[in-house]
Amino acid sequence: PLPHHDGIRFLATVGEILEEGEQMWHCVAQLIPSAVRGQSYFFHVTYQNEEATVQLDRSGRVVQAGGPLNQQNAASHWGKSTLGRWGRTWPGHRTRRTAPPDNVPF
Q: Is 0.85 surpassed by the pTM of this model?
């Protein structure tokens, strides 16, 4: 099940991911193929009047978190922490990366 936090929204469609990239001024849209293949999951986070995008891999590990223009802010830090805790509850969660990341920042 998805996390139940008022400030966290799962980006469930290609359109939502495209819109996220436009609103946040970063290139999360380049990672759509990874989401379509089920290798990445993307979330929009709102916290303390700031916004961020957080990427988790298929094992629940946070890959990256960034606000508008890829800047770190309160929302990216809170989202990374909160979604990281949630991801650690996933079956098969791993703390170490066994495969290289997509290497494409938002």
A: yes
